[in-house]
Specification:
single chain; mainly alpha; three-stranded antiparallel sheet; 5 helices; 3 strands
Length: 95
């Protein structure tokens, strides 16, 4: 981020998505669910610098922690068998 961008008080959803390395739709969905703080300006959203700092610094609130637990649980439910098979394969390759 250059000096001009670092002094911005708000970022757009596309800017925020690039910063985190995720899709614009992922950010938009999190904003709509209230998982990322944002203000609506017309048809667009602006994400305040304090929300960005909180996320990037890893300071997790209870809602953030619950989200992580839910995502991990869902991932294990959906991909648990594959993860176990990959772990076994990795163990065989490292022996």
């Amino acid at each position: 981020m250059d000096k001009k961008e670092s002094k911005k008080e708000y970022l757009s959803i596309p800017e925020f998505a690039r910063l985190l390395g995720i899709t614009r739709m992922a950010v938009y969905n999190k904003v709509k669910k209230g998982e990322i703080e944002a203000i609506k300006i017309g048809r667009n959203y602006a994400i305040p610098q304090r929300a960005i700092v909180r996320i990037l610094n890893g300071k997790l609130g209870d809602a953030d922690k619950k989200l992580i637990v839910d995502v991990v649980k869902k991932t294990l439910e959906e991909y648990g068998k594959v993860i176990k098979l990959l772990a076994k394969e990795d163990e065989r390759n490292n022996d």
